[in-house]
Amino acid sequence: MPSRQKTFFWIFLHTLAILCVITQVFTGLRFSVFRFDNLLSLSAILPQGALHNVHIMSGVGLTLTAIAYVLYRFWGTMTTRQLRTPASFNPSKWRIDLTGSSIKLFNLWVIRLGYLVTTCILISGWLLYFDASIDSIDFIHFILALCMVGYLFFHGGFTLIQFGYQAAVTIFKPGTTAYRHIFSIVVSFLLCFVIGLYFISFQSIQTLFVRTVSPTTIINIDGKAEEHVWHDAQSIEVKTHGGANFENGQTTVSLKALQNGSEIFMLAQWQDSSESLNHLPLEKTEQGWAVRSQGFYQFDEKKYYEDKFAILLSTKCEMAAAGTAHLGPQPLKDQPPNWHGRGYHYAEDGETRDLWHWKAVRTNGMILVDDNYIGRPEKALDGQRRYTAGYYPDSKESGAYIMNWQWYSPNGITPKRIPSIKNSEPSAASTDQTFSENGHPSSVLPWFDTQAYKTSKDPYIVGDTIPSVLMRSNRFEGDRADVRGFGVWKNGQWTLEMVRKLNTGSQYDLPIEEGLCMWVSAFDHAQTHHTRHHRPIQLQWEK
Amino acid sequence: MKQRLLIGAILFIIIAAYAALNPPPIPQPIASDRFIKLDASGMPMDIWAGPWACILDQKTGLIWENKTDNENIHDAYWTYSWFNQYPIIKESESLQDASFKGTPNKGDCYFEEERCDTLDLIQRTRTHQLCGLKHWRLPSTEELQSLLDHSVRIGEALIQPAFFPHTKKGDYWTSDFDKDLTGVYQHLKFGALAVNFKDGSVKPIPYQNAAFVRLVTEASKNFNISQP
Fold first, then answer.
1. Quick check: B25 and A479 CB within 8 A?
2. Which of A291, A507, A536, B79 has its CB 3.0 to 4.6 Å from that of A517, i.e. a possible disulfide?
3. Could you tell me which CATH number the domain at A8-203 has?
4. Are A404 and A414 in contact (CB under 8 A)?
5. Smallest CA–CA separation between A338 and chain B, in Å?
6. In CATH, what is the architecture of A205-272+307-380+388-393+481-543?
C-alpha cells in the first residue's frame, strides 16, 4: 500500500472496479450453477432473480473502468502522484509493514496478475456474450472468475489484513486537492456507460430474415426440409450453451424462417450426438415395476428423457429470454422454491411470451409442438408438488398422451397398460416396443396396441422394459395444438420443421410479425436443463 | 497484523458456515385447510401422496369420489345418462323396491356390458365400498357447486387440480331432476341439472345426455379427519 494519497479519479475507478468485480463474481457464480451443480452449496450467499442485466451492466462498467485505467496509466495525467500528506495523517504507524521488500514484490505481482485476469475475463465474457464459436468459452470464463476470486482474496483481503482500516481510508479518501474534476469525471463516465449499454443492446440483436413464399407453395412438415424454398431462405447460426449432456454443454442451432401471408414456417437444426427417445422407461425389477430415472423425482431428469427443443417468442427483446429467466432456488419469496435450484421462468410485467416446446417422444408422433406460454407467476396451489411460476401449457379441449403409471413414486409404480400380448411367451410383449426410423427404441405406446395391466397376468420378467408414454388420442385439441412440427434425427443432427398461423387469435399466443424477438433452447435427454443464448433473434421480413 | 489475520479467518469461517448451514430450500408440502386425500380404505394421506380414492372436504363435511385415468369404474372419461332411484333416499342401501327416473344406459364406459348410467356407477361404488363408505350418491346442485373454483388459470376446469385431477371441462350430473327443459331440448320436457366445470354454469339437460359424474357421500360422525 503506497503511502501517497489518491486522486479522486483513481478512487473513482478503483471503487467502480471493486463494485463491478464483486457484482460480476457473485452473479457469475449463480450462472455457474447451470454447469456445476455443486455450486448450489454456495446458494445462501449468492443473489437470486433477474441477474443477467445486472451481470452485463457490471461487465460494461468494468470494461469502461479498465479502459479508463489504461488511458490513465498511458497518459499519466489523471493522478497526482505526490499529493501532500495531510498533517493529521501519520503513515509511519503502518508503513512498518511495508519494509519487507518481499511483501512489496508479492503485492506488485498480485496486482499485475490481477490486470491479466481482468483483461482475460473481460475478453472471455464478451466472447461468451456475443456467442463466439469457441469451445468451452463458458468454462474458460468460469475458471477466470475463480482466478478473480483469488485475486480479490490476495489483493483486497491481503491488503486489508496487512494494513487494516487504514487501507480503506487510503483507497476511499481523496487528497484535499483532488476534487477539482469530480463533476466532469462522473458525468464523462456515466455518459460512456450509457453509450456502452446502448452499443451493447444495439449489437446484441441478431436478425432472422423471414422469406416470403407463395401461399400455394407446399411445404411438408416432415423433418426433411427438402423443399427448394428452404434452400433459398437465409439462415442464422446461434451458439447455445449451458445445457446438460451436450458436449461442453454447447450446441449450435441453425434457423430459417418462411411466411406465406397466413402462416410462418420455421426450420431448426442442431447438433446432438444421440437420438434420445428412451423416455422414462418402465422396468420390471425384483421388487416390481419401476421408472428408470435419474433426477425425475426432482423434475430434473438428465438421463432417461427425450430430446426436446424450445422457441420463445416475445414482443420484448430483453436479455435472458425476454427477461423471464429468474435464477436461484427461490426467486419469488412468497412462492415455493424450485426443486433443482436453478430458477423459474416468469414475466414480471405480466405480458405473455409464447413458447413452442417440441418433444421428440411425446409430441413428435402427433406432428405437434406443445404450445405453451410464459406469463405472470401464478400463485402456488394447495397440494401442488411442482410449482412452475409463469410457465404453463396453453389450454386444450382434450388429448393426447398420459404417463403409463397409476402414480409416480421413485420406489415403484404400477403400469396402466402393457403392450397387447400376442402369444404366450412371457417377455414377448416387450418386443412390441416401437422404434424410430433410426432403430432407436421409443417410449410411446399407442392406446389400441395395448391392454390394461393386471398384476395377476403380468407376463414380464425382471429386466424387461415397456414404454412410459400412452397415446390416449392421436393429438391435442384446442389452443395447445396450434403449432405443428416434426423432427428427424440423422447423422448427429436434429432437423425440425414447424408451422403455425401468423395469428391464432389465442390470448396465449403472440401474433407473428416483424420485430418480434425469439430465443431457442435445445435439450439433450434432459427434462429442464436446456441450452441458452444471450442475444435475442429478431424477425424481419425479407424485402 | 496477526489480529487482522485472525479476524479475516473468523469472517471467512462465518461466511462458509452460513453457506453450509443454509442449503438451498427444498419444496415442502403445505397442508390444505380444506381438502384431505383419502386412500381406498378411507385413511387420510399425505398431501403429496397418491393415488388417492376420495377427497374429504372439511368445509362441507362431504367426501367426494376421486376420478382417475386408469380405466377403472372411476375413470374420468366415462360418461353416464341420468338414471336414478325415485324418490332418492340417500341412506337407502337397497334398490329393489325403488322406482326409477331418467334414461338408462346412454353413456359411454368400458365397465358395463351395456352402456352406462348414473345408477351403474352408484351401485358399483356402493358395492366396492369406496373409501370404506356405502352411501355414495349423486351430489345436489349446491354440493357440486361448492367445488367450483374460479381462481384457476383460464382454460382449466374450475376446480382445485391437485385434489381433483382429470376433471373434464364439461357437464357433471347433480341429483336435482324433473327440471323443465328449454330451447332445443324442450320437446323432451324434463331433465336433471348439471354443473358445467368449464364455465361454472348450471343448466337442465335431458336425462339421456351423456355427462360426467362425481359421486359424493357424507363423512360419518366418527370419521377421523386428522391428517397423517
1. no
2. A536
3. 1.20.950
4. no
5. 7
6. Sandwich (2.60)
